[in-house]
């Protein structure tokens, strides 16, 4: 990387940050060549130019600076165009469930139990005594 590439990198970073028109812009301060401090934290990110794209080191790979800012700049995150999808309620993938397992029954709604029916599961508690070790329930 040549000194002119680094100068161009800094100009490209400032250009991308300058696209935000908010009164309180997301801070991104150059610390050294290719290193920037972002946000209000001491987090450092590594930045480089790859095929005319400004890239940011994330985890074990690289992402564009624009995409990084979409995820981390509070202004971009709050706009409707850049809002991340709502969290999923389901925590498992139906494709990964084996056909032999059955889904857990839903918890009954209070007051909807039938008289005389037994609950499907009963809570179990272990008691410890000073006389001896705990014994598992049978």
Cα shape: elongated
Order of helices and strands: HEEEEEHH
Q: Ranges with pLDDT <50 over ≥5 residues?
A: 80-93
| Overall mean confidence score, pLDDT | 72
Based on secondary structure, the structural category is alpha+beta
Q: Give the end-to-end Cα distance, rounded to a whole number of Å.
A: 70 Å
Helix content: 10-25%
DSSP summary: helix tally: 3
For CATH, the homologous superfamily of the domain at 3-78 is named as Gas2-like domain
Region (Disordered): 77-138
Domain GAR: 4-76
Biased composition (Basic and acidic residues): 128-138
GO molecular function, one term: microtubule binding
Plain-language structure description:
It is a single chain. By secondary structure, this protein is α+β, with helices and mostly antiparallel strands. The protein has a domain at 3-78: 2-Layer Sandwich (Metal Transport, Frataxin, Chain A), CATH 3.30.920.20. It is 21% helix and 19% strand. It is built from three helices and five strands, in the order H-E-E-E-E-E-H-H. It has helices at 3-18, 65-72, 74-78; strands at residues 28-32, 35-38, 44-50, 53-58, 61-64. A five-stranded antiparallel β-sheet has the order 1-2-3-4-5. The longest helix is centred in the N-terminal third of the chain and has 16 residues, at 3-18. Residues 80-93 have low confidence and may be disordered.
């Amino acid at each position: 990387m040549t000194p002119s590439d680094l100068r161009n990198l800094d100009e490209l970073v400032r250009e991308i940050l300058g696209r935000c028109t908010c009164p309180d812009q997301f801070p991104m301060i150059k610390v050294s060549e290719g290193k920037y401090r972002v946000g209000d934290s001491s987090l450092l990110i590594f930045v480089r130019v790859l095929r005319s794209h400004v890239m940011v080191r994330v985890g074990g790979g690289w992402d564009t600076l624009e995409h990084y800012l979409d995820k981390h700049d509070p202004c971009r995150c709050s706009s409707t165009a850049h809002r991340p999808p709502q969290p999923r309620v389901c925590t498992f993938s139906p494709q990964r469930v084996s056909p032999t397992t059955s889904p857990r029954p839903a918890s009954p709604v209070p007051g909807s139990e039938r008289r005389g029916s037994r609950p499907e599961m009963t809570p179990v508690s272990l008691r410890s005594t000073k006389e001896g070790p705990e014994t598992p329930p049978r």
